[in-house]
Amino acid sequence: MTEPKDVERNCPECDGTGQDAGMKPVRLGEKIEFRPCTKCGGSGKIKEAAN
């Protein structure tokens, strides 16, 4: 019998972008800073066990 393999899927927290989805409003002239997603660590992918 074969072992189940992990499957890579898009992170549901950031929709596969790898960036924090929680954006705060900025004033005109301010720089927007992107933070890595806390769930996937910025990769945009998570590994799940295959069924």
UniProtKB/TrEMBL annotation:
SUPFAM superfamilies attached to this UniProt entry: DnaJ/Hsp40 cysteine-rich domain
InterPro entries in alphabetical order: HSP_DnaJ_Cys-rich_dom_sf
Composition bias type Basic and acidic residues, residue spans: 1-12
Record region (Disordered): 1-26
Domain of life: Bacteria
Protein name per the record: Molecular chaperone DnaJ
Source species: Bradyrhizobium xenonodulans
Lineage, opening ranks: Bacteria, Pseudomonadati, Pseudomonadota, Alphaproteobacteria, Hyphomicrobiales
